[in-house]
Amino acid sequence: MGRKQVSRRTIEQLAKIYLLTVMVGVRIIHYNAGRHSGIGWRNVMDSDDLLELADDPNFISGIYNYCDRWCERCAFTSRCFLYASEKADVDQDDPDTRDLNNAKFWRKLALIFKDTHDLIRKCAEEAGVDLDSIEAEAAIAAHDRKTETAKKHELSTVARDYARMVEQWFAKELAEEEKIHVDAAHSETPAEKIDLAAAVEVIRWYQFFIAAKVFRALLNDDDEEIENDLADDNEMVRDAAQNDSNGSAKVALIAIDRSMSAWWAVQSCLPDKKDSTAPLMAVLERLRDGIETVLPQARDFLRPGFDEVLSDFVS
User: Fold this and answer.
1) Kind and range of the H or E element at 288?
2) Are 202 and 264 in contact (CB under 8 A)?
3) E strands present in the chain
4) Which pTM does this prediction carry?
5) Domain residue ranges of the chain, discontinuous segments joined by +
6) What long-range pairs does 94-101 form, CB within 8 A, spacing at least 24?
7) Could you report the per-residue pLDDT of 142-181, keeping only the tens digit for each?
């Protein structure tokens, strides 16, 4: 029996697995400030270990897809496969693996991509999928075209513009991190001093994150289908809002909401910055309105864990 020809949808699902695995690798490299050095570079979890870890029933499936990546502030780290995979990597405390100018960084990154490639090949083989078929090449080409379209979308452009504007604002208005504390010293109350530092942290955290999530929402916008092939009359059909586009857009909207609140805090603590921050808030408002227009069901998306009632937790 010949190998099964891969469908476009299967290729895109495998592509999502690929991107997830790469994301795990990149976050392994960048996670936390290092304290030790001299750790061997050939210490990335291999595919078998990764798959075994993923089988842990304690993890909430897909919770990492729709979070804001701020693990230090998350109550669900013990239920997250991505967080566990980071903690399992023995190189997480090695600063050399996060230094772009260090050969260790590039060796580790190359290893991550190799292991990712091997994992995808293994999963495809088990599924009887021929990744080298002509149909697969056509599906990949179609995905590349979608990627370019999403990148050029007005909302993607606005989101990238916002990230650039934030960088310019800090360079001009708060050129040095220490200046935050200097400016905060002019605040009237201790609470305002804390608010300013916290607001800056929030703004910086979501500065580039918003654009990434907007891009992902637009990338998957036109091909989401409700998979109900095995459902019968007694099974509930998945709600139309429950797709990756809406999930990604919801996280982007949450990041936008929090960023706007942070900019309000900056204005409150530093009234003389009101005029310079107004254009940034206007861009965020434009971006928020645009997302809600293009993906009107985004806020209805229920994120695994975060928007669900879990019996193991008491609110």
Assistant:
1) helix 274-294
2) no
3) 4-5, 129-130
4) 0.73
5) 7-149, 153-300
6) 94/34, 94/36, 94/37, 94/38, 94/39, 95/33, 95/34, 95/35, 95/37, 96/34, 96/37, 97/29, 97/34, 97/39, 97/41, 98/29, 98/30, 98/34
7) 888 998 999 999 999 999 999 999 999 999 988 655 455 5
